[in-house]
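Bench notes, afternoon.
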Amino acid sequence: MPSQKRSVAMSHHPRQRFFAHGDLRLVVLDILSRNASHGYELIKEIESLTLGHYTPSAGVIYPTLDWLQQQNFIDVIHGEQGRNDIAITDNGRFWLNEQSAQSEQIKQRIKARIVGHELRKNPAMKQALDNIKAVLDQKVNRESASEQTLEKIIAILNRASQDIAVLD
């Protein structure tokens, strides 16, 4: 039984940020490129985009909007009832277009994170994934694996993914 405790302890990781630095700016601009919005609606849209796995706080979204406005990437029009209409500018569309590769990577990471969350709902699947991460961490990071060992590990993981891909 001690080995089970060790694998659980090795698999404990601090919670990762959902978005890397600067990612939220692109996500917000992408949303605004489809429709003008309000701060609260942006928060809800991001929550929906991540299937509820991440909801930015006002303390995160409003500084992001301030930055986007300072860069002239959005216009904030003070509307009725204290609500501000937020719309992307031509400069914002141009910048978003320039960042299209990074924006696509962000979308792919969101999808992958959602898949990871869904997989982890099954306790046995969570344990199996945690065990793989722990043994990879041990072999690759802590033991400084040789190039030959890395090639073997990669081949094993590729075979496993191929085996999983052909399952019904």
